[in-house]
Amino acid sequence: MALSIMLQGTASNVGKSMLAAALCRIFRQDGYSVAPFKSWNMALNSYITREGLEIGRAQVVQAECAGIEPTVDMQPILIKPMRGTEPQIILHGEVLNLKPGDNWKEIAGKAIKESWDHLSEQYDVIVIEGAGSPSEINIKDGDLANMFVAKLTNSPVLLVGDIDPGGVFASVAGTNLLFDEEERNHFKGVLINKFRGYKSHLEPGLRMLEDIIHKPVVGVIPYTELDIDDEDSLTTRFTAKNSGGVDIAVIRLPHISNFTDFNALGRIPGLSIRYVKNPAELGKPDLLILPGTKNTMGDLLWLREIGLEEPIASLAEEGRNILGVCGGYQMLGERLSDPKGVEIGGEMEGLALLPLNTVFEGAKTRTRVNGTFEGVCYDAYEIHMGVTRASNGNLPSIIYKKGNISGTYLHGLFDGDAAGMLKLLKVNLPELKDLPSYNDYKQSQYDLLADTFRANADMNKIYEIMNSFKSSFDMKITS
Question: Residue 436: inside a domain, yes or no?
């Protein structure tokens, strides 16, 4: 039976995912086999495992920190919001079609327990991440991500509070107040996250907080600039501005998904990435990207309503480079058809920049693909509804190119040879020397994350909490 520690948050976006990733890295560095676990998540950023199954990106990052291959047991339930319809439910990596009379809570609870049992049999330590806040008292009975999991797995909980927007003491104390007695027994300590300033100025508040909640503050983690994949649309990447050099603009679609496809480009010197959501922000980029989306037809309607279709067509006529990825690729075609109502139903004209047609079907394509295209290697994955064919009925090549317009279903296109892929897309880059591989770059960021956590948290206390909480088990771990 694995030992475990769970991170819950006073709210969404307090940094649970990053701190869980830090703990995964630290336990691995300390010589233990470790895995992440999050019972369910709501996000549009997803990933395809080696088995061809779908999970959210946050647990992929945590698995990479732990030095293991991501599996669906690390996140048994993924909820993907959809425009105008019920959300899509991914259970153990595959789309779940609920039937009338199905007991969702029973189905979900069984899946969560099965995944937990699998992981706890394989690893020394499991780092669990909650979702949102555990103190939403109006929906607590249906909350399968927080105290339900702490009780199911018999895990101690560290509560994460974000000090950056203010009010962290009230949010921590208020969350503790709304716990019942059993939940308060699981709550064993506090992590203050995203701190800016001198800790000595904070110390009086920390001591007063401990006196109020009768729990220790086990760490104050400083705000640190790290280049690690974000979990969802709360990312700060969307507000980045053009910093000069090669200009890459990504359309910020309302249902944008897998924007992590472009994170690998951020490490390239002399290149900047910005996200645009209206014609005034578009400018004259060296490369315009239409990204993936969970609602291709709905977001294409938005693109037209906001007035972006004509400026995109003008950029194409000027010879500016344009790339469509997944849903963005489908938009670049001549026609989109949805006879089964997978998205919004009916037919719609595309942007007509590529001679392609897409038909949405009930089955979802989920597969990993690797190979070489025009001398550039890729190791990527596909995840989409719909089949795209050329106007003559043939399936297009893995990356379809027509002049300055390109499209592909490949997610992770730039995770390998990013510079080579950009040159293939006719983007002129400055001469690059000694650019580390994206994997090496990510590993260095994970180590920096772990180092920052170690330097600012009491790992001995965290080990003590884990061991004492499960004192009935023979296994003990130390830093």
Answer: no
Q: What is the pLDDT of residues 439-457, one digit of tens each?
A: 999 999 999 999 999 999 9
111-167 pLDDT tens trace: 999 999 999 999 999 999 999 999 999 988 889 999 999 999 999 999 999 999 999
Catalytic residue check, 24: no
Catalytic choice (186, 255, 326, 384)? 326
Q: Looking at the structure, tell me whether residues 214 and 271 fall in a common domain.
A: no
Tens digit of each residue's pLDDT (9 = 90 or more) over 309-329: 999 999 999 999 999 999 999
- The values of phi and psi at residue 165, to 5°, are -80, -5
- Same structural domain for residues 392 and 272? yes
- 461 is in which domain, residue-wise? 3-228+442-469
pTM (global) more than 0.90: no
- Flag whether pLDDT at 262 surpasses 70: yes
What is the domain-level CATH number for residue 95?
A: 3.40.50.300
Dihedral, 251, 255, 257, 262 alpha carbons, nearest 10 = 20
- For helices 438-456 and 16-29, the axis angle rounded to 10 degrees is 90
Residues 374 and 412 in one domain: yes
Examine the domain organization and report whether 300 and 265 are in the same domain.
Answer: yes
Total domains in the fold of the chain: 2
Residues 346, 201 share a domain: no
Tokens linked to 264: 């690998």
Q: In this structure, is residue 430 part of a structural domain?
A: no
Same domain, 161 and 277: no
411 noted as active-site residue? yes
Pairing of strands 376-390, 271-276: unpaired
> CATH no. for residue 362?
3.40.50.880
Residue 475 maps to a domain: no
